[in-house]
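Supplementary Methods, section 5.1.

A reviewer requested that the exact input to the structure prediction be made available. We therefore reproduce it here, unchanged from the version used in the analyses.
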Amino acid sequence: MRMNLRERYRCFKAWQEHPFDYANHSEHTTRCANCGTEFRDNFCSRCGQKAGVGPIGWNTVRQGIMILWGMDNRSLSFTLVQLALRPGYLIHDYISGKRQVAFPPVKMLFIVALANALATRLHEKLYGSVAEAQTFEGELAFLNQFMTWAKDNTAWSTLLYMAVFILPTWMFFRRAPRYPRHNLPEGFFIQVFMASLNLLIDTVAQLTVIRASVLLPIYFIVTYRQLFGYGWWGTIWRLLFCAAIGFGLIIIAAMASVVWFNAEEIFSS
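The structure derived from this sequence is encoded token-by-token as follows.
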């Protein structure tokens, strides 16, 4: 039993790292099963049918059902499954040039944000409204408008929050064994995926009894470990520094906003 579980884990790890099998049919001539054209490529040059189409079997049934439910390659649902089961490897594939493995990440973020908003409304109807947010007055009154905007624009506010980790991630992970030369634009897409993952976990938490606050740190550690290739401890201490700098940037931005919105009163006094 133990060996069986170990073998299953090894198969799962192998799938996480290499989930796609791109067969190369260019080394030999293939006769298209659809139009009869002979070609040496992965797709027929006349009708476009994929090479290697054989008799209908159980794999054909599986593929047909997956396509019916939108689980084919690069669909939104397929990408969300990838994001949940192999988040770091998926992000690494995308930013390293394998664009066909994922649904467009920015579009995915806004769709997941919409689902999150619907799940939040459903949660409030089933379990009652969440506690009222703190209301700021006086010098911090402008924060009320920002909090209202953030609630109404979940995708943008989550992305804005995650964007503060672009620079710290580049600082502490730019010499990583698995991806040593990532740049700031790639860091943007890393955080787009992380924002989608954040909202996905929160959506599941809204619809179930799972606490997102427990899952999020675990997912962050696992994702960054898969993405950059450091060990557990190397990933954790770097993430702690990233979090400290990120929250520091948020505090600085909040203080700067207070000064900006109250500049007239401050300088007149």
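The mean pLDDT is 80. These observations are discussed further in the main text.
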